[in-house]
Amino acid sequence: MPYLDLDGRRLHYRLDGTAGTPVLLLSNSLGTTLDMWQPQLAALGQRYRLLRYDTRGHGGSTLGDGACSLAQLGGDVLALLDALDIERVHFCGISMGGLTGQWLGVHAPQRLHKLVLCNTAARIGSAEGWHSRAALVRQSGMAEVAAGAAARWFTADYLAAEATAVAGLIRQLAECDAAGYAACCDALATADLRDAIAGITLPTLVIAGRQDPVTTPVDADFIAGRIAGAQRVDLLASHLSSIEAAAAFNNVLLRFLNA
Ligand SMILES: O=C(O)CC1=CCC(=O)O1
Description:
Layout: E1 3-6, E2 9-16, E3 23-27, H1 38-45, E4 49-53, H2 70-83, E5 89-94, H3 96-107, E6 112-118, H4 127-140, H5 143-153, H6 156-161, H7 163-174, H8 178-190, E7 204-209, H9 217-226, E8 231-235, H10 241-244, H11 246-258
Parallel strand pairs: 3-4, 3-5, 5-6, 6-7, 7-8
Antiparallel strand pairs: 1-2, 2-4
Helix pairs in contact: 1-11, 2-3, 4-8, 5-7
The chain binds ligand LWBT4IAB.
């Protein structure tokens, strides 16, 4: 289990695949870990070296002094690339990870080849909503947020068909460090890249879930409309489309990256 030490914090990551092949960096959503990319490993790992990490305050990555902003989340990615001596990567992030990708596309495009933004928005939710969710978990722990997550993350059909797999993800969310989760809610509360992403010039693919109630196809249209030349795809899924529609997700991603 490799860890990167960063000023009293540690960042948990995994780098799998053959040295010399292009690196695809995968960035997780709020309340998940690098394990969420399990459905991508076999399909994408044949062609790409896969670099995954737990976002700050999640999984094996600690929070540090407690504060968290989108710039810090983006800075963690740059610190990881520097530490591993990797100049440039393809970047794929989902939801909060997609916001981190947008931040990198704006502030560090020289470290990226192609950008894949999945089930995300240039501004996710509202500051008020994130502040109240942060306050809830700081006060009462993860139980209430975990209880509502399945309906935010997956369609009813997927929940019925894959109850065991979903239960595992929800259990992991319930065990998430409340302080780490809340700090990332704080980061989401202030993250607003609606103007800034117009400056992104990287080849970009924007993926939405047709039934995503959190970051909707309209949010994806907004991003694709602001980034010149961005490609735009809808999948038959809710919020965690990389899990719910894994085969289609992998195909779309490979077609874009391999082109
Ligand atoms: O609310 C959720 O659990 C979904 C979500 C919002 C931002 C993110 O990364 O996940």
